Amino acid sequence: MRLNKCWRAMLLWCALPNLALAAYPDMQEEIATQPKAADMHYFTPRDLSRIPNGAFGDKVRKGYELFVNTQQLKGRYVGNTLNCTNCHLDAGTKAYAAPMWAAYLAYPAFRKKDNRVNNFAERIQGCFNYSMNGKAPAIDSPELVAMSAYSYWLLMGGLLDMFGMQDKPVPELNDQQLQLGGKDETFSLPGPLAGRVKMAGREHMPGRAFATLAEPPQAASPSRGQQVYSQHCAVCHGDQGQGREMAGVPVLPALWGPQSYNWGAGMHRVNTAATFIFENMPLGKGVQLSVQQAWDVAAFMNSRERPQDPRFDGDLSNTAKKFHGSDQGYYGKSVEGELLGSQAFPAGIQP
Ligand code: HEC
Ligand code: HEC
Description:
- With 351 residues, the protein is mainly alpha-helical.
- Helices cover 36% and strands 5% of the residues.
- The chain folds into 2 domains: 2-204, Cytochrome c-like domain (Cytochrome Bc1 Complex, Chain D, domain 2, Orthogonal Bundle), CATH 1.10.760.10; 222-339, Cytochrome Bc1 Complex, Chain D, domain 2.
- Strand 3 and strand 4 form a beta hairpin.
- The structure holds heme C (2 copies).
């Protein structure tokens, strides 16, 4: 029964028109949101207890550990108090919180942010530089190989299960293959999967990235958002959005200020934050704010100062024009008399 539903979801996804192929490489900096249907069934990765023993399994396990406790890289590659799993919820497995299984299948992809094709490991580097306000590990570093291995394992294990190959172990890939991602032409799909998982549509797995959220009835308002924040968010994230630490260990993530994501991160955009918040926050009680509240609180959170965009060239309006021309963020704009980006905090890791 469950398998049947999975098949339906899978066929729906495989039946997407060939448009996606024509558009490859996809010209999107901002990952397109995915429509959410009431009867949608999502991909289920294997239980972590099925990660195999041996060298390959060790890489996958290491990737998981880095993903949930990225703070072990603090100071070296991480410049704030966040962990990957703070945004990619449930260790990167939750649909509509940019899950890693869907992401893995979507790369390599064209990325306007750096104007070139990014493979999967390079996309992870992006989140180190912006979301983690840090400095990304090298592409062939053990850290990026491990995080790529974990993401690949989530995808491939779930795919094998979905097609009735529950007993089949996830085929091992070498380090170079792991970095590429599942949309590479050389990506190998075992047996019956090969004909099923079409190249077109690989970037559109249901549940990828974030769910499409309706436009707010009224333009998003930081001041209305402040009220939403005090009522629904401050209890966990703090009056100053600073999050909370216990015995020196961050337990609740910072939403703005020096320990949060920087001005170049995807989450700094009001639309991206609004869809994330609507679906996932308050934690454990997602989809309870109104659409208007989600936009307003996203506007409030993203109109406070945070660490500088690493691409800052010394001139705020120039940097804003060059990199934030059409995005729905407040970088270089004035809110309540404050020019955002002008008092930005320094990079978390000094060059
Ligand atoms: C502050 C929140 C946040 C943190 C922390 C974060 N990310 Fe992300 N990540 C995002 C957002 C938002 C996007 C989508 C960006 C966009 O639309 O431009 C994203 C996208 C991605 C993608 C591409 C997803 C896709 O479907 O294409 C990968 C892979 C990724 N992040 C990996 C990581 C890893 C690994 C870490 C930890 C080192 C991390 N992220 C930390 C917010 C975050
Ligand atoms: C019950 C406590 C709780 C409440 C209330 C709550 N959050 Fe969160 N929030 C969390 C936790 C915990 C995480 C990290 C999740 C994880 O690591 O699994 C998180 C993650 C986030 C993130 C991504 C990480 C980051 O630092 O950027 C954002 C954005 C966010 N919350 C915004 C909000 C907003 C806005 C509200 C109010 C509408 C809210 N949260 C209410 C606990 C809470």
